[in-house]
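no rush on this but wanted to send it before i forget. what follows is a protein written twice so to speak, once as letters and once as structure tokens for the fold. mainly i need to know what kind of three dimensional shape the backbone takes. thanks a lot i owe you, the record is right below.
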Amino acid sequence: MKEVLRVRDVHSNAGLANVISSAHQKMLLHPIYRWIVLLVGLPIHIVVLLFYLYERRSDAYSEILRRTKQELLDSDYKEELRCSFNEQLERKEQFFGKKISEQAKLKQVKRWTEEEFNRTLQERTMQQLEEQGRKRSRYGDTFAALMEKPWFWVVSIVLGLPMYILILLYNSPYLKYLMERLVMTLLVILGVAVVVFTILHLSPLNPAANILGETATKEQIDNFNQIYGLDQPYLVQLWNNLKGILTFDLGNSFAGNEQVTTAIANKFPITLTLSVISLFVALIIAIPVGMISATRPNSFFDYTFMFIALLGLSIPNFWQGLIFILNFSIKLHWLPATFNPQNWLSMIMPVIVLGTGLTAAVARMTRSSMLEVINEDYILTARAKGLKRKGVLFKHAASNAMIPIITVVGLQFGSILGGAAVTEKVFNISGIGSYIVDKQFIPDIPAIMGGVVYTAITISIINVIIDILYAFFDPRIRSKMKQY
């Protein structure tokens, strides 16, 4: 029994080694992953490189390559190629009646000659290697051979555990897809932070003068700038702000001396809650409306729904909010005019105002996407086989029409979250949007950086979820992920 278990362990280790070495060779072929895996597993690759250089001493490839190159040069093969390509260019000039400069002709002939010479050299060298029953020593093959040795396993796991984690993630299509999206998200967030800080840094507004007032002396302004680090160079300030974002510690705001992280933690959930509720209500209304309009094109319902959707896209949020307040709060006294987290009735008007544009956009996209899908051959075939109309619509048509709808939902939700400042001002909502607007005119750099960047982080996370939903709804994307 122990022998059987030992054999199983050996086979499992060999199988894992083959998986890792195969994925490692694929990563070496990728221009970006090659550098990442080399940097992450640098100690391991130094060991592999030493073995590779030692093996190359007895590698016949270099000697055969040198001998074959000399044979081709002695046979004037390179000169023959040059004359042949030069003749081709001359014929091309005669045929098209277009003269090529002598310098351009020489450069083109030289490039073609080198490319063809190197290609022929490689082909003949590999052919001689095969005839002699030898193989060229490659770095990836050396790594794969070392992976089969137990001592290398022990050393490499200790020195290169992050590299193995990266290789296993790369070997899984779904984890690789998710990992790449997360890396792109981090780069986007970094780019947003740099751009926002640069704009604020170049702003003509002076935070010290705006906060201390016109009567502030030069000494007071200099003291203010020193306290908040505004007298430091651009790169130093940028690094301090980026470090604060990563550590969730942006310090105190210029105005009010409040903790920026605490203020955002209190205000951001309000905006996020309103945006999520608006999204939920919009989807409940928009998707059924769009599907009904698509299944009854050019009908009374279709024209009515699409006309209402067009109105929803055309009405500005601030004007809609003011009209709601005038009618439902001041005139009818049905709903409170200002937002109060303790009163759920005060959420109705802001949710409707935020969700109107989203509802209209999703309804129109649902209609358009469904109209394209329901006329496809596989839908007509399913109907011809006698399947029920509702089953065909919901099981086949709706699922295949979801990709553009998901795209619109992701874009519109980002617009809602990023553009909620106007609605928050109208309804006196103490959310992240109005917080950023209030701080903009100082400008309060830590507060604005925190508000904008953390909003960007949320939108980026939403986009990652959207990318994952693509693969969930569309089997074609899943198949491409496996081939990628």
Notes: The longest helix spans residues 260-295.
